[in-house]
Amino acid sequence: MARALFRLQKFLRRTQFLLFFLTAAYLMAGSLLLLQRTRLVVQQGSRGTSANQALPVLDGMPGAGMVDPRTLQKPRQGPRLLVGMEALQEPALEQWHSPRWLVSRNLELRQLRRRWFHRFISDQEPMQTVGFRAMRHTAEHKGTYVGCFSDDSRERTLKGAVFYDLRKMTVSHCQEACAERAYALAGLAYGAECYCGNQLPASAAKPEECNSECKGEKGSVCGGVNRLSVYRVEELRAAARRRRNVTYRGCFRAPENLTDTFPASLLQPNLTVEMCCEFCSKKEFPLAVIPGQECYCGYPTERFPLRHGADGQLCSAGRAGYCQVYQTPVQDTRCTDRKFLATKSKVFVALSSFPGAGNTWARHLIEHATGYYTGSYYFDGALYNKGFKGEKDHWRSRRTICVKTHESGRPEIEMFDSAILLIRNPYKSLVAEFNRRYAGHLGYATDRAWHSKEWPDFVNSYASWWASHVLDWLKYGKRLLVVHYEELKQSLIPKLKEMVEFLNMTVTEDRLLCVENNRDGNFKRSGAKQKDFEPFTQEMKDLIDKYILTVDEALRERNFTGLPREYVPR
Predict the structure, then answer these.
(1) Which candidate, 121, 148, 140, 138, places its Cα nearest to that of 212?
(2) Distance between CA 85 and CA 116 in Å, rounded?
(3) Pick from 181, 201, 200, 188: which is nearest to 282 by CA?
(4) How distant, in Å, are the alpha carbons of 14, 197, 314, 341 from that of 397?
(5) Which of 525, 518, 526 is nearest to 163 (CA)?
(6) What distance in Å separates the CA atoms of residue 431 and residue 422, rounded to the nearest whole number?
(7) d(CA 404, CA 353)
(8) Residue 124: strand, helix, or coil
(9) Which of these, 482, 487, 437, 493, lies nearest to 462 by C-alpha position?
């Protein structure tokens, strides 16, 4: 008994000493880290603007706030000071030493360090409001600057086409994009958004209200908050006409009443395809329809859905009741408006897939069909810069219609109330994900990457993940809608309707037709695609085919449709 008591006392003494030592080490490490961060702030402040030259920045100004919503889910209200390259809030004097302020300050310093090392935002010279007058409007731009105009997001005047680039937007890039799509005007807002059209906005604004610097061009104005910097690009259209993309959609049966179906028409002797497409482009319609020697402009609608094409010889022979259809460079904007949910969603929905299974494309379809942003479990700056604004929203905010995730495992799955499970052929998924890792979302990996040892290691590790991802969601998912990527691509409207209904949303047929007309978005890979190249060895195929059979069996056991036939075996 005495020996046991002695051992207990000895253990307690050692424990106390150990706890004291760990506490002291933790405090010393924290102090050193705080000193290092403070030194970083001082160094950065010395390189930027002094405190008495700071520029007030409104909380609502896009791109001005530097607080990441993933770290600060409840941004503080009130003005901030833009000091050098970072925005820091000035706390009240009585709060300086409160625990809440220390936590907030620590988060801001952590954010400062992250942005310093990863260079999310480049160093900017101090700019006062009057400094914007010196910004270039016409010096290096081919278009003619018209002026600053008010912009109403609910009813835009320049709504022919919409582009986002929250890192590299320039005036020239916007001008060229609008000119190539046959528009006469290009407007920029928030430093990163580009709008095209043919009619000037009705309400002019003060020149100094267009005060947002272009994200990709220092010293140039790209609109402001609800303000458009508008340029005429008519002089660029002649050069752009040679590069303009007009696509032949096919031969279709013409609707019974052409004038009721199409809002614009042109009757002209010796009509040509070029004349009709140019006319419809100026009228801001995505379709040019030519029955015989007449020209009509419009959209895909229930009366004219463009789903069942006819024999092309019927149009070539001038058969009555048939028409040729061309896709003009104009974007169909009936489904491009998107926003966050006004109230928090009661159902937490996941859009789950293995990497490379088309999750980004599915998000594009869902956002344009429903009109609401999708969220993401991750922060992908490249996707955010291209218009997926839900990327920067906290994934548990419930302000988005669904949340992208590649996670598997019981805890990560059970936190969602329901899920759309997107499955793609593993052979295609593995190739797509390998391309993404080595060349980004829209590029292709090089020959060197495919023939390196990285590819076999990638297949060995990722093939099993493809199977386990599906199996885990089938096992732990509470309410699932299984969607096969290949079926979604082949039967877009029916499958998209299923997804929208699963999300408890209702959409019009015309909006779905608009999505179909913009089905690819900006997500087709560019660059040199390898031809006649088989990256999979027989050993890899044997491994992948086993996983395919396992997943197919699991789907059927859960009363879901099995995998498409093209999956198994290769």
Answers:
(1) 148
(2) 9
(3) 181
(4) 46, 35, 54, 10
(5) 518
(6) 17
(7) 8
(8) coil
(9) 437
The encoded tokens of residue 486 equal 């290949």
Nearest to 33 by CA among 115, 92, 93, 110: 110
Longest Cα–Cα distance in the chain: 115
Q: Quick check: 271 and 280 in contact, CB under 8 A?
A: no
Alpha carbon 205 to chain centroid, angstroms? 30
Question: Is the separation of the CB atoms in 65 and 80 below 8 Å?
Answer: yes
Pseudo-torsion of CA 97, 101, 104, 108, nearest 10°?
-60
Radius of gyration of the chain (CA): 29
Domain boundaries, the chain: 144-239, 244-327, 349-523+535-558
Candidates 558, 359, 567, 370; CA nearest to 474 is 558
Per the listing, tokens 């990441």 go with 68
Of the candidate CATH numbers 3.40.50.2300, 3.40.50.300, 2.120.10.30, 3.30.450.40, the domain formed by 349-523+535-558 belongs to: 3.40.50.300
Which among 424, 446, 455 has a CA at the least distance from the CA of 536?
Answer: 455
Structure tokens at 131: 């400094």
| pLDDT per residue rounded down to tens, the chain (570 residues) | 545 555 655 555 566 666 776 777 777 776 665 555 444 444 444 433 333 333 333 343 343 333 343 333 333 333 332 333 333 333 443 443 343 433 444 444 444 444 443 443 343 333 334 344 445 554 455 678 999 999 876 677 787 777 788 778 899 889 888 887 778 899 999 888 898 888 888 889 999 999 999 988 888 889 998 899 999 887 665 555 544 578 899 999 999 899 999 999 999 888 999 999 989 988 889 999 999 889 999 999 999 998 888 998 889 888 889 999 999 988 888 898 899 999 999 999 999 999 999 999 999 999 999 999 999 999 888 888 778 989 989 999 999 999 999 999 899 999 999 999 999 999 999 999 998 888 876 778 888 888 888 999 999 999 999 999 999 999 999 999 999 999 999 999 999 999 999 999 999 999 999 999 888 876 565 555 655 678 999 999 999 999 999 999 999 999 999 999 888 655
Is residue 419 exposed (0-12), middle (13-18) or buried (19+ Cβ within 10 Å)?
A: buried
Question: Which residue in 339, 365, 386 sits closest to 517, CA to CA?
Answer: 365
* Contact indicator for 276, 326 with CB cutoff of 8 Å: yes
Residue type, 81: L
Residues 6+ apart with CB under 8 A from 468: 408
Q: In what helix (H) or strand (E) does residue 174 lie, and over which residues does it extend?
A: helix 171-180
Pairing of strands 247-253, 322-327: antiparallel
Count of helix runs (H) and strand runs (E) in the chain = 17, 20
Q: Which helix (H) or strand (E) holds 217?
A: strand 217-221
The separation between CA 392 and the C-alpha centre of its own chain, rounded to angstroms, equals: 10
From CA 90, how far away is CA 93, in angstroms rounded?
9
Cβ neighbours of 85 (radius 10 Å)? 20
